[in-house]
Structure formats: structure tokens, C-alpha cells
Amino acid sequence: MARKERVTKVIDGDTFKTSARKNPVRLANVNAPEKRQTGFSKAKNQLTNLIQGQEVLIDTVARDRFRRSVARVYEGGKSINKEMQRRLKK
Question: Is 68 a known active-site residue?
């Protein structure tokens, strides 16, 4: 079941925290650069601009080995997963 939650912190280009969860949320099917990798800052800034402080709809599809929700995320009816995939291809 999808839940609406407010984004409190963007960790990197595919992971963020909300006020309602102890563990972060990871975007499903998105693989952004990690810290110290080329493109990390750009990817983090892009996700920050899209969802920081916004109320997003989180549809969890799995859990990863770090107990994070792996989810499809929507803001205003727009798929954040698809938007980040598009932006990371550039």
C-alpha cells in the first residue's frame, strides 16, 4: 500500500529520508553514483531539487540488505524513478 510522506533529507541521487521512517527509502531501478564517484553531487542535487521538503507517494516494492524500502516514488503524479533514470542517462 502506497503512503504519502514528507521528504526530510536527500542522501544521494537515489536515496532519501522521510519524517515517518527510521530507515531511508531507495528509488527502485535507479542507480546513482555513490559518494566520491563522478556525478555524485549532480545526481544528489537533482533529486534534492525534485523532492526535498515535498510530500511524495511511496510505493514499496522490496527491502534491500540495509532494511531500506526500495520503492516507486511519485510527486504530483510524476514518477521520480523515471525522471531520475532519464536525468542520470545524460
Answer: yes
What is the extent of the structural domain holding 14?
3-89
Burial class (CB in 10 A: 0-12, 13-18, 19+), 60: middle
Could you report the per-residue pLDDT of 39-61, keeping only the tens digit for each? 999 999 999 999 999 999 999 99
Annotated catalytic residue, options 5, 21, 26, 67: 26
Are the C-beta atoms of 82 and 47 separated by less than 8 Å?
Answer: no
Number of domains making up the chain: 1
Bridge partners, 79 (sequence order): 74
Q: Is the pTM of this model over 0.90?
A: yes
CATH number at residue 64: 2.40.50.90
Please say if 3 is a catalytic residue: no
Catalytic pick among 3, 6, 21, 34:
34
